[in-house]
């Protein structure tokens, strides 16, 4: 028996260093990827192995080891088998163990007289990010920092998200040097906030917030200020201040609100001239919804232009605004303030958020992308959100399939990364797992699993190792289905007739209620569609085959296919049932010894992903039954169909059908007669799957391996 070609390498000093001869492959290397059960929490890839540590080289804390100071926690580790990468993970645990005979170890004699080993456990990137307990900042916050902060244009002079927790005494500043100055009558954690934001601050009567910008910038470079706001109820008659800010020229800018009229912009020099004093309409904008406002100040030829523009959550496709001018220079931003009036007509409160100042008039603070982030990226496709989240975190994401074929998501709420990834996986029914070739997280889309070419074709009794079990149980049975929208809506559907229905056994499978939480952009339209898909998936009437094992020593010809097989791939097993089994791989365990090697694939039925293709002969009949009782040897059968659209083809023979557990072949199908039921007489070959049964009047007849509706 040939020895396995195994290479284990550690990454340090900017390169991988192979240590194959020092791995105890006799004690087996175990590589695990993907899920252990469908619908389970995202599971990181793992590698478990043992180093021979006779020289004490693989104890990272040994000062005499070449690994000292170079390897340790989360050191990248790579395993290759047959020159193919099987796992790239991070070594999270090093556990040295010694068996001593007489003398204790020393630097001169590192292991005494006993055996010394190091057990290593390593996990994929999902293992590390799964430990991140803090939620990611809101979508709008992340966009602002990424676009205008150190990783973007680096134009931020100040950014106060105002997403601070209760009992805040000093506002959080995302820009060092921009500081909070004043907080009065402010309540943090408001339940009302833009979809792309975390809870914000609400100012009560007479409430104020104030702070400074970073004191830098060129005098005539221009600047912009932006923020979000929403009134609990509109103020009454009068002028009510919204936001003010000052510049290095001594100018004071103030935007006020006048109910029933619109905005009022006032710009003047403290104790001096008034530069702008103008009222203008805010049109049909409804200020009891979320509003984003931007003031842009630029200068050309001694004329300062002040552009005030705004957009609302209720009408995000319409940006409104006006421009005013005065003679002078722009200066640069110095301080800002927000307030809410204290008079009887001031209203109950105003919610503020995301006060941001940039040092240029060139950035578009009302761009389509920024408005999209303000709204939480509604309608963003699941594959696109997956890649964006990882890119924002400087992590590597790999998409298998087309992002354009993934499900549209609802607004992104603040949550941990692993919870956001799990939400993406549920909404699209995608697989998310650690990549095999690099430190990266991979998403395989639902659509990419439809109608695959088998990645591995096996035959029972030839190249499928024991045990291989048929399991008829209720694992995976889901009926009724309750689709729950993250924002709060839900939709319930159920299968109420037939063997997989909610009827009490033996007429059905009983109540196997399943709640599935998703985040889709249009709950009224999409929740019923998603519920129907999951119901179809949860009422699949067939046995499970939880695992398929291949002995690659006995069947080396399958090694290339097994080495390259991705999570979500289709494998087939012939010779066990009458039909070839179609199975989707959701996880695998690769066990490698010095000589033996076995791969066990965790699988789920692949029937749901054998979808119908338009304009092909793969449609099933839903209302056809046996027109009489037929013995196992009868070859002329009357087919009775209730719906005229379900009658069987008279031109595509031969084709196979199922009835009473028997697969049979129709070699000739007669014309339709009658007006309902619609009768056809067919000539058949019985027992195509060896089984021959008695057909009883009314037994259902279905196309063999029919195409299913895809989501």
State the end-to-end CA separation: 48 Å
Strand content: 35-45%
What are the low-pLDDT stretches, counting only 5+ consecutive residues below 50?
none
Q: Which value, in Å, is the CA radius of gyration?
A: 34 Å
Strands, total number: 37
Please give the largest β-sheet.
Answer: 13 strands, antiparallel
Mean pLDDT: 89
- How many individual helices? 7
Q: Please estimate the helix content.
A: under 10%
Shape descriptor reads flat
* Helix/strand class: mainly beta
Can you characterise this structure?
With 711 residues, the chain is mostly beta strands. It contains 7 helices and 37 strands. Strands 8, 9, 10, 11, 12, 13, 14, 15, 16, 17, 18, 19 and 20 form a 13-stranded antiparallel beta sheet that branches. Strands 1, 2, 3, 4, 5, 6, 7, 24, 28, 29, 30 and 31 form a 12-stranded mixed beta sheet that branches. The longest helix is centred in the C-terminal third of the chain and has 16 residues, at 523-538. The two termini are 48 Å apart.
Keywords summarizing the entry:
about 700 residues, 13-stranded antiparallel sheet, mainly beta, twelve-stranded mixed sheet
